[in-house]
Every structure is written in structure tokens, then in C-alpha cells.
Amino acid sequence: MAASKSRAPEFSTGLEWFNVDRPVRLADQAGRVVLLVFGAWSSVYCQRVLQDLQVLGRKYRDELVIISVNTPRYAAERKRSHVLKAINKYRIRHPVVHDPEKQLWNMYGIKAWPTQVLVDREGMLLGSMSGDGKLAQLDLVIKYQIEKTASPNPVKKMPCTTRCALEAPAVLSFPSRIIASNDRLYVADSGHNRILVLSSRGDVLRQYGSEAAGFIDGNGSDAAFNNPQGMTLAGDFLYVADERNHAIRRIHTVTDDVDTIAGTGKVGMPVLDAYAAPVDVSLNSPSDVVFRDSKLYIAMSGLHQIWCHSLVANTLRLFSGSGKEGLLDGPATTAAYSQPSGLALLFNRLYCVDAGASAVREVDIETGAVRTIVGKGLFDYGDNDGTGKTARLQCPLDIHADQEHRMLWIADTHNNKIKRIGINSEFVSSVAVEHRLDEPGGLAFHEDTLYIANTNAHEIVRLNPNNGHAEALNVSEELVEI
Prior knowledge:
Layout: E1 16-20, E2 33-39, H1 44-59, E3 64-70, H2 80-89, E4 96-98, H3 103-107, E5 115-119, E6 125-130, H4 135-148, E7 162-163, E8 177-181, E9 184-189, E10 194-199, E11 204-208, E12 218-219, E13 228-234, E14 237-242, E15 247-252, E16 257-262, E17 274-275, E18 286-292, E19 295-300, E20 305-310, E21 315-320, E22 340-346, E23 349-354, E24 359-364, E25 370-374, E26 386-387, E27 398-402, E28 407-412, E29 417-422, E30 427-430, E31 442-446, E32 449-454, E33 459-463, E34 470-472
Parallel strand pairs: 2-3, 3-4
Antiparallel strand pairs: 1-4, 1-7, 2-5, 5-6, 8-9, 9-10, 10-11, 12-16, 13-14, 14-15, 15-16, 17-21, 18-19, 19-20, 20-21, 22-23, 23-24, 24-25, 26-30, 27-28, 28-29, 29-30, 31-32, 32-33, 33-34
């Protein structure tokens, strides 16, 4: 962190603030260290920084003021409604200032998401650092600043009151992904840190994980997850990408036992291309899994790669992606992804949505070579039907393969739409939906019905794609014994 003797610029007037009853002023924070965090929460890096902020906030409750500066990357992130939903989805309880025109971004000379800026007790800039994984460095600097000098002013209560606009209680909380199989629906009820098994009518048949975030193996609700995302069924087993635990979990659907098959519960940066003991490898924000031929393919969002876990050999290896963030086609070793978030298998191809590049990629299941179907570049997004580089998506989070109709279904999340792509024509078209969608995050097609995890509306929607008729599933709160 580079030293600086200049005074931290005061916040611009007219910006919108959240979680407080009035705008925060740096001039009122004399005596406290201030940590400004510039970011956009669509970024997996920015999401991980939030976990660090919780640690620092608890440790330095009275001496540190944390302020998130929301600087949108996508058009959808400019909306007030999106900011409110994101604050509750990620359980942000410190002050947030919305900076859609990048006033503060430019004033502080920020160049990348996320960037953390520290201001000392006298209001002077200490410096900045970009990227995630900076908890240890931040902790050292904050501790040193607090201990090296006495506060120039007595540390008083902040001159504004915390005021959070919480979501109304609901059975589901930000459900992210869904699987439909026979008469069962498997829902990643991510805001409640659990997996639910529902009947086709919406009755809760099973619950895996309690509502408290944790990393615990066990039976049924005695186990614990942390923001579970994508799932895949293989026989009697349900495999889960447990994103914030950076792990792959396995649920035995007969015995209800939950165990960990890969990951340590902590984020990591694997240095090898293959590992013989997956449970000893620290993964990096796995967001989805699919199963084929005794293998799990894992969308590792935090690494911009796809990994493969052999369930027979119990080994983990890099399958596709150089690890450099980008939108680059070619062989597995040189291809680049940007936050791969959803996977689907159809025939001999693996399909992937890159949330960071608003792209759809086709991956050869044998070689890992990559070809882009939809997408142009890292910062090219929109809402256009069409083919190839004329089509546009905005931060898609999930993809589902429909073998019968030779179709790919896309959760075009930040456009609040569902889109489909014909395998033969590769034409992208918007699907008519007679229901308001609010950042849908997951899809499952089964028996001519498309099930949608309507994430920000806390509901599961059933859609008839032929006529656009849609209705929310009435999910009961009571566990039904079977």
C-alpha cells in the first residue's frame, strides 16, 4: 500500500446512501480509520471482499468505519432497486453509497474492481490496494494506525443511524438454482443457506442445511452450507457447488447424509493442474456442477476456469481455461473465461455462460477447446436477439440444455429475461413470460415446463414456453413427511 500525504476527498453531495439515515461525511469521522471499498457486486472478487469486511468490522467495531462505494459495471446495477436487493442478498450492513456516474471513482483515481482505500484518523489518504484476498494486509495497516497514535478526537457514536431496509420474510430467500426430476424439484435456497426438495405442488419434502451459514457435514438439517449454488443429480446423489465454502458437497438422497468431496472450506489458488486428494485442495468460488461419465465438471468462477473431478479415481484436475480473465477461444490451455457461472451438457459438448463477459461458450468435452457462441468482449453486453456477435446478454448466470428440442435455455439475469438458443441455428431469441422476472438466476426444463428460480422475487416460477403463461409455485413452509 503506497503512502500518501494528501487529504481524502470529501464525498460528493447528491449521492444516494443506503443503510444509514443520512449521508456520511468524512469530516465527521475524525478519530476513526475509514475503509472505502469500491466495487460492483456482480464481480466474484467483490463478493469475496465482503466476507473480509465482516471480519474487519467485528474486530474493529468502534475504531473503523467501512463504506462500500457501489460503482456499477452493468446497466442493471445503476438501478436503485438492484442496489437494495444486492445489499440484502449479500447481507451488507455497513453504509453504502451509490456512485452510478463514477464521481467518487474518478475523484479517488480508481482503476479496477475491487479497490480498497484507507483513510487515517486525521482524514489523510494512506493508500489503496486492488483485488481481493487483502484481509491480512488491511488488518495489519488498520491495527498499526489504531495503535500508533491516540485518536485526535474521542471516538464517538457515528453521527448517523444505521437503517437497513430488510426483505420481507418468505419461505424462500434469493433461490439461485433449480433441478427438476420426475416429481421432485431441488432448489438451492441460497439466502437461507440450504437445499430444499419440493414436490411438484410446492410441498417441502426434505431440507439439507440449516439457515445458518457454516461448513458442517452431517445428516439433513444438521449439515451447513454457505450460499449453495449449482447442483447436479447422479443416481442417488445430489452434488452441490457450495460457493462461499469453496467446496463441492454431496448429498445422499436416500440416507440424507451430507459430506464434502472437494475443498477445504477456505478460498485458494491451486498451483497444480491435478490433485490426488480433492478434499485437501482449496477451491475458488465454484458456482455450478454437471455430471457425465463418472465425472463432475465444475465452473470455478473465481479462477475463470472449468475443473474436472473424477468420482472413480477421486482426482481433481484442470479441464479448460488458462486462468486469465477474458473472452478468448482456442485450446484448453490458452482459452480464457470470465467468471463462468453456469454449465450444461448436450451431446458431446459442454456449454457455459460467462457472467463476466455476458457470453455463451461451447467446450469440447474431450479436449476442453473453447468456442464462443454469444459474446464479443469483457465489457460488451446488452439485450439483443440474433446470432453470434450481434446477440447480446447481460450477466447471464445459468444455462440449461434441452435435448428433446435441441435447445439451450439461458437465464439472462440482469436483463430480467429468459432466452433460448437453437443448437443448429445458434439464433438467440427472447422468451415471452407473462410474469415479472427479477434477476432470474437458475433454470430447469422438464416435461414441457420451464422452472425458473426468480431469485430477487424469492420464488420459483413455472413457465409454459409455448404460450408464455407463468405462475409462481406455492411453496409451503411445513415439512411434509414421505
